[in-house]
Design brief:
Number of strands: 2
Helix content: 55-70%
Radius of gyration: 28 Å
Largest sheet: 2 strands, antiparallel
Low-confidence stretches: 227-241
Strand content: under 5%
Number of helices: 21
Distance between the termini: 93 Å
Shape: elongated
Length: about 280
């Protein structure tokens, strides 16, 4: 840079910032961004308006990409960033995409799962969401689609076919899934305590509730700490946690006195029999 350093390279921060304020040339701002001290460099980036330069920074700079993306409005350049990156860069750029067709393409074909998930978050087309919920290879993406589904048949497909219990729990928790036959099927056949708990909570069929209450399957039981939300720190720290039992939930939902009497006499678990007996009037 010759014998004389430009003023924006001064160690005096105030002097460097004052010099920067006079610069409007985009190439010069890029030079300052690349060579100045951190604060001056980021201030130079904040003064940039050239969309192509900002896109190049977003693609090539692992530290300043977020700031650069926030300043980009050109949709074609955002798409370029998404196509040329496979990380939080593409994910952040996807947040600014507005075209539903572009979002659908990203959701179905981008290699980075969290970029696909970000696109799904912005989609409303049910047919695309249904396809993703059933077929995406990553749970994080399927889960984003499942919470937006409206079709009971697709939710039922997920509940009965997805290998991930958290994904199945999200599907059965979806307010659009109300079919009692499907809830009954899940309550009897699923192997995940968390899925079973949601199924029983949504059940109104007294016969199925009675069958659950009388069951001798250990799948209906779980340590309290393990059955709570994974982010519940109090539950995680409760080392001994008492036993939680979906069969108790089923008993509490029974209104038919004859069925309660049947459970009180025939339930496999003594504590369930006792719970049923207490509800007999």
């Amino acid at each position: 840079m010759g014998l004389f350093k430009p003023a924006w390279m001064s160690k005096d921060r105030e002097k460097a910032m004052k010099a920067l304020e006079k610069v409007t040339n985009q190439e010069e701002l890029l030079r300052i961004f690349r060579n100045a001290e951190y604060e001056v460099s980021r201030a130079a980036l904040n003064r940039m308006t050239d969309q192509s330069i900002l896109a190049d920074i977003a693609i090539n700079d692992d530290n300043a990409y977020w700031q650069a993306i926030q300043k980009i409005t050109d949709q074609s350049l955002l798409i370029r960033i998404i196509k040329n990156t496979n990380s939080s860069k593409s994910q952040e750029a996807t947040k600014k995409i507005t075209d539903p067709y572009v979002l659908a393409d990203i959701a179905k074909s981008h290699s980075y799962e969290y970029t696909r998930a970000e696109a799904v978050e912005k989609l409303t087309d049910q047919s695309i969401l249904e396809d993703i919920a059933k077929n995406d290879k990553d749970e994080a993406v399927r889960r984003r689609a499942i919470v937006k589904l409206l079709n009971q048949d697709v939710l039922a497909y997920v509940v009965t076919n997805d290998n991930d219990p958290v994904t199945r729990r999200l599907a059965i928790s979806n307010i659009s899934l109300t079919d009692q036959k499907m809830l009954a099927f899940v309550a009897i056949n699923d192997v995940s305590y968390e899925v079973l708990k949601v199924a029983v909570a949504k059940l109104t069929d007294q016969n199925v509730l009675a069958d659950v209450a009388k069951s001798n399957s250990t799948k209906y039981r779980a340590k309290y700490a393990d059955s709570c939300n994974r982010y519940d720190s109090e539950a995680r720290n409760h080392q001994d946690g008492h036993i939680a039992d979906v069969r108790w939930d089923a008993v509490n939902k029974l209104a038919n006195q004859e069925m309660l009497a049947d459970v009180a006499q025939n339930a496999a678990d003594e504590s369930v029999r006792e719970a049923a007996q207490k509800r007999i009037s």
